[in-house]
């Protein structure tokens, strides 16, 4: 990296992934992190994060350089543009504010300085920015971390932070790979993480969805972590439900020109050590009564597969079950009205 000034990084969303990203970037020493928090702001502002991490060990009462409870409006606050904005919120289309609304106040007008990094699951999550911020370089961050915020400011990370960074396609940007490489170098500078460049974002995102489109909803629907899912019913749930669902994602990817490794299904079934008893983020969300990312994890690949003529009965069933769960949560949160019960 050229120059000695620390890179300024704004992270929006300091939950399971955002808190570890903030810690990792500050441990690396090449960045100054501003972290935007919401429901956990008071807890973290007063006491800091308590983090139990397989990469960083026990870290108590820790805060990044700046924590705030609102997204900076750089024009109104006369702040210099950030070098990077890293989005670590859940990404739930249709529920305001949109991802574009979130980052817009923190970006310069007609931005070409700030690089946006989407550290979120899903397939085409960059497309809204292509329309609204065509000159903004958007990087893909595919995270294989296993992390959970068990109560405000209390983070348990039990799967290592493995991150693949790549540039989403944008015809308006020259040499996006150098910016991706710079982010890789600042992210891995602390030596605690495995962060590398991914040359083929679409391939890497489809590959990740073999896990997320299947294990996230199945664990969330059944209330089982991935270890217990493998133990359940002597492996029948894996063979009759998980494996066919994963194969449908592999088929949808292939029909969209993305050929995944032949053994990807087995690799994803086995990827979490059984005794990690890992809760995918959708299971954690259902347990907390949070909204779930079913559109990006299931709806996206389902629509792409259908368009290409692939039959995806298992994924379709999971999609509508997840949609039902979302409706249930929305009702519990007063987001939908229902007719009164007859008495
Ligand atoms: N957890 C994991 O192990 C993994 C997660 N991912 C992906 O990473 C992304 C982030 O997930 P994860 O960290 O688990 O999610 P969390 O729910 O743990 O954290 C998201 C955070 O973003 C905050 N947030 C949401 N909207 C705003 C806003 N408008 N302003 C400020 N903060 C906001 C939430 O606050 P509030 O509490 O108020 O809602 C919450 O603290 C998702 O796309 C997920 O799929 C990828 C790999 C692994
Ligand atoms: C599977 C996992 C933990 C990443 O490795 C994830 O992406 C999620 O929980 O949503």
TrEMBL record:
Domain Ketopantoate reductase N-terminal: from-to ranges: 9-169
What the entry lists under Pfam families is as follows: ApbA (PF02558), ApbA_C (PF08546)
EC number, UniProt record: 1.1.1.169
Q: Which Gene3D superfamilies match?
A: N-(1-d-carboxylethyl)-l-norvaline Dehydrogenase, domain 2, NAD(P)-binding Rossmann-like Domain
Reading the lineage from the top rank, the first entry is Eukaryota
Keyword Phosphoprotein, does the record have it? no
Q: What is this protein called?
A: 2-dehydropantoate 2-reductase
């Amino acid at each position: 990296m050229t120059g000695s000034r620390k890179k300024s990084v704004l992270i929006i969303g300091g939950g399971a992934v955002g808190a570890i990203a903030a810690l990792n970037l500050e441990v690396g020493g090449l960045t100054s992190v501003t972290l935007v928090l919401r429901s956990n702001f008071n807890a973290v502002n007063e006491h800091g994060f308590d983090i139990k991490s397989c990469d960083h060990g026990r870290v108590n009462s820790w805060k990044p350089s700046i924590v705030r409870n609102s997204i900076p409006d750089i024009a109104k606050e006369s702040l210099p543009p950030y070098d990077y904005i890293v989005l670590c919120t859940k990404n739930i289309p249709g529920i305001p504010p949109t991802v574009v609304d979130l980052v817009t106040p923190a970006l310069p007008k007609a931005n070409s300085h700030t690089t946006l990094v989407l550290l979120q699951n899903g397939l085409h999550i960059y497309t809204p920015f292509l329309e609204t911020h065509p000159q903004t370089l958007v990087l893909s961050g595919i995270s294989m971390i296993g992390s959970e915020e068990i109560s405000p400011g209390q983070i348990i990370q039990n799967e290592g932070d493995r991150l693949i960074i790549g540039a989403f396609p944008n015809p308006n940007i020259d040499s996006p790979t150098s910016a991706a490489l710079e982010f890789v170098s600042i992210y891995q500078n602390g030596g605690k993480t495995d962060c590398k460049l991914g040359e083929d974002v679409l391939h890497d995102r489809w590959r990740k969805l073999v896990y997320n489109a299947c294990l996230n909803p199945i664990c969330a629907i059944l209330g089982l972590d991935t270890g217990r899912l493998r133990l359940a019913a002597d492996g029948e749930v894996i063979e009759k439900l998980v494996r066919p669902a994963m194969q449908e994602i592999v088929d949808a990817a292939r029909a969209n020109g993305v050929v995944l490794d032949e053994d990807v299904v087995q690799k994803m079934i086995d990827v979490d050590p059984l005794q990690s008893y890992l809760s995918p983020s959708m299971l954690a969300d259902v347990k907390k009564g949070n909204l779930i990312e079913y559109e990006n994890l299931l709806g996206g690949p389902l629509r792409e597969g259908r368009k290409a003529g692939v039959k995806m009965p298992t994924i379709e069933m999971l999609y509508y079950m997840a949609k039902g769960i979302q409706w249930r949560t929305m009702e519990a949160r007063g987001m939908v009205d229902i007719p009164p019960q007859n008495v």
